Amino acid sequence: MSVGMILLVVLAVLLLFGIGQRVLDRMRLNDKQALLFIALIFIGGWIPSVPLGGGVSVNIGGALIPFGLCVYLFIKAGTAKERLRAVAASLLSAAAVFLVGWFFPSEPEAMPFDINYLYGILAGVVAYVLGRSRISAFIAGVMGILLADSAQAVVNAVKGLPVELNLGGGGALDAVVVSGIVAVVLSEVVGELLERAVGAKRNVQVDGDKATLVDNEVPSEETSEEKGETRE
Amino acid sequence: MKRALLWLCLPLLLLGGALAQEGETVYALVDGNGELLTHIAADVEAGDEYIDQGNRLFKVVSVDEASLTAAVELAGEEPMLSLTALEMGRTAQAKSVGIYVTHSDEAYEDGDGASSIDSGWTGIHDVAWALAESLEEMGVEVLFDPSVHLPHDAGAYRRSRATAVELLKQGPSALIDVHRDGIPDASEYTTEVDGEEMTQVRLLVGRSNPNSAANREFAKKLKAAADSEYPGLIKDIFIGKGNYNQELMPQSILLEFGTHTSNKEEVLRSTELMADVLHTVLFGTGGSGAATQNPSQSGQGDEAQGENVTGTPQGAQQEDGGSGVATGIAWIVGIAVLGAIAFAVISSGSLKAVPERLKRFSSELTGGVVGNKPEEGEDKDDLP
User: Fold this and answer.
1) Closest CA of chain B from A69, distance in Å
2) Could you give the ipTM of this predicted complex?
3) Which residue of A109, A129, A196 is in closest CB contact with B7?
4) What's the pLDDT tens digit per position in B241-293?
5) Quick check: is A41 in a domain?
6) Chain centre distance of CA A153
7) CA-CA distance, A160 to A153, in Å (whole number)?
8) Which domain holds residue A54?
9) What's the predicted TM-score (pTM) here?
10) Closest Cα of chain B to A10: distance in Å?
11) Number of domains in chain A
């Protein structure tokens, strides 16, 4: 491979790496933790998938690390309600991913956009509608793919199809990772847009006999969490 | 909660219903004179491109969904390369090629008994295996992964992505996804090369990926080599929407060996020649005797020394399709910059604050080497 081609591939990975680090940084992880997880996903993705037996294998970077991160975020979730939202968003995302496989066209060119991003967008929308939570979005994005793939494997097994299940086999470029990142980016962008729209509205503040026009504050992490509307 | 669920399900069902198709849709590509160029068994959209056997480049300008007709206009002659120019552009490397099959159900009615078989190893695996064997006979290490990616649904390419990545880890010089087409008329694929009846091969390039330009260069090299060694073997190149996992590697290609109504024996015959073409492009001539002799013995080799098939100077050729790589790099950098600016605008709410936010964003990503470091105690969530 030429230097140019290596540069092209490295650049694409760095872009994913950079966005991934920013995404994790937006959740309850500090810079070092975010970088560590991204590095583990990247390195683990290049290690051959680990066979678990029964035609099932799991990729360390593409499935195991993202799954571990989901567990970590789930445990660190502030409230039981938030955990419930993450579970509901994951199940709904999995159902959406599964349905997409069944009902949408089989050829990539017939899709409105790249199928790998579609899952992340679905998960992001599901998580945002359910709770405006970045943590839920990430968990839904990752778990949605893992659960849908597992469900498809069960269907294949019932049908007697000789299909092996390789969870996260695409490593850092697998839909599991891409979906988690896209879901958070989407909830972030949608959240920012909506909150910006809300924050732009001006209210009249009455203080004694004085009335002044003030800008509404954009909801902060703290105030949202206090209200039970966690926005990690 | 119930209302939220309804809102979630409705767009999905509507979109799915709108996109759902029964069977494979076949579009006719028709030029401005009403001449039928070819059929494409895939969704065709305005902006898609088509390079015919004579290297004419057509662009799809509109699609009539009712008549399944795509109107194309001639965009000129696609610059192609000579075999000698291809030799110059090649780098010395280990002979290794990765081969896999995304649509594991694809088969040939005339040979397998059905066009789609959900059983594991099918007709398309036979074709991929024949291609692998031919390459191995030429001294190429073939990384052949016959993994099954059933069902043949919207998730097939996602599942085969894992297979492609696993192959990529072993460092192949190219990744080949073997398919068969779905157009009904087998005669569109029938050809005769060196007096033997066989099927043609269509090259498919996905234009929705950052490696698209490099993939296209690779496809053009394959066609140029085939046109020189085995004229008529490559049917055409279709550059359509989608990525087909081709963003994983610049030298990725999707090969359509005949169509579902083609005679399987004729399909298998074309794999040997296609293997030789791949060998020529990736590792140089010498794959098979015929290929080594063809350019000079036919008299084309001498003529092609100074210029390529369409007259582009030989020196213009860059290593590994350099122009495609440059385009890919520009694409990725462009996306990154535009994405960062868009997000900075969204999160700051004004254009004025964008430069400051971009400086901070750069600083955060580079550990303070580039851009402004946030003030002590400043909330990082204020950053874009």
Assistant:
1) 20
2) 0.72
3) A129
4) 888 999 888 899 999 999 999 999 999 999 999 999 999 999 987 666 444 33
5) yes
6) 22
7) 10
8) 3-200
9) 0.74
10) 10
11) 1
